[in-house]
Design brief:
125 residues
């Protein structure tokens, strides 16, 4: 029983049994890794096919958005110019109306003075 060769053989057998048990336990993991690798390969193939077209579409969309932004900026600039022009026109119109009112008052006062003078001259006769 104290034979070292016997204990070595038993140790070697236990080691082999343990190694087999570990290998058997790792088989599902290895199979799952294989399936995962296949899925990853399919995903990468799909990405290689689809990604360039998608990136090109995104780039074109970005360019279109830039163009639209420039057009909107131009439209806003034009609208600003029109609003300023309308504002100037309204200001000019107000000034002209005020001048017309002043002129009308002067004509009315002049007509009134003339009427009084005429009546005064006509009643003296």
């Amino acid at each position: 029983m104290f034979d070292p060769l016997f204990w070595l053989e038993i140790s070697l057998c236990l080691f082999v049994i343990s190694l087999i048990a570990v290998l058997i336990a790792t088989l599902p993991t290895i199979q799952q890794l294989t399936n995962t690798a296949r899925s990853a390969e399919k995903l990468l193939d799909t990405l290689n096919k689809e990604l360039p077209a998608t990136l090109e579409a995104v780039r074109l969309t970005g360019n279109e958005l830039n163009q639209l932004t420039e057009e909107i900026d131009q439209g806003i600039g034009s609208a600003t110019k029109i609003v300023k022009q309308v504002d100037r026109t309204i200001t000019t119109t107000k000034e002209q109306v005020q001048q017309a009112q002043t002129g009308t008052r002067k004509v009315f006062v002049g007509f009134k003075a003339a009427w009084k003078t005429w009546r005064t001259n006509n009643s003296d006769q």
